[in-house]
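Exercise: predict the fold of this chain.
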Amino acid sequence: MRYEIRGLSSDRVTTLFVDAANESDARRHAAAQSLRVLSIKQKNQSAGLRLTRHKHNFSLILFTQELLALLEAGLTVVEGIDTLLDNKHRPEAHNVLTRLHQNLLEGKSFSGALGDVTEIFPPLYVSIVRAAERTSNLPEALGRYIDYQVRLDSVKAKVISASIYPVILLVVGSGVALFLMGYVVPRFASVYQGTGRQLPWMSSLLMDWGNLVSKHRHEVFSGMLATLAITGLAIRQLLRQGGIVRLLQHIPFFAESIKIFQLARLYLTLGMLLDGGLPIVQSLNLVGPTLSPELRGRAENATQAIQRGESISQALNRFALTTPVGLRMLRVGEQSGRIGEMMTRTAKFYDGEISRSIEWFSKIFEPVLMAAIGVVVGTIVILLYMPIFDLAGSLQ
């Protein structure tokens, strides 16, 4: 759910939009941004959809890359935004850059200007910029965010690319099976119907289906289309709500891989924030919205444990937010004072494990799926021709 929060930040009223599970969670996000809440209300679904579409049209990573190039060339932030504004022709990008430019001309800091456009710039991004302003290393922070986003996108791209071929196989195989059941079988049924011969039991069931399709063609195809549409909508809804992920977490192989993927994202984000100068408690609060509900609860418990004086490695290990390898690397980071760097290295190690799991799954699952599709299609074809084989045998 999306919430609109109005609050005081640096003696001025600021409006913040956050995605949170409930109002209490939204208040925690506001507290992580050092925002004193004045009012909070839930945004309606249609507004949320518009914001999502707007965010999609504005490429945050492209904006960051272009701004970083201008800053490294010696331009100030105001000059950089002004230059980008002159080069943008898409309306959605022009509107966002115009708002940023006006905020900067009004005397706001860059993080403050970004914070007024929270439907585009997430709290994580704003916090990185705010921390960089304190240490005057904005280009380094932007470069760190680009590297962070590229690595996240790389892992997602590996998962998507590994899913493309199985999905194509499944769609083509299902299409062939539906064509046989909806077009070929009814025509064989009409041929066998007038022979008066006793068909094998399985072939008889298949022919009964063919006769049903022949007599009620429109109703059957309408029902199949409706079933496909409902199934597609259900899968889409499960993907949005994370239902498929929760389902896969009950399967041993997938459960471990999903856990590693979530830990990699957690450690990569924490490493970026800690290297940017943010304290661990604030970093964990900012990471919360990017985690699954289960890991979010563990992260909150770990945050409370750290506030009570526990070390980072102890707290994360006690609430199952690490692995044996990750725990050792965290302890090394605590001893050397480079906890942010070690978290980033741990995330890189987890990325390697994810890549190996994806490769192994592809090698196993694709042949199994092809064999299953072949069995289904082959069974239909054999059942269609069994009466012909039986007739040929009787003629001999």
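Check your answer against the key: Confidence is low (pLDDT under 50) at residues 45-56.
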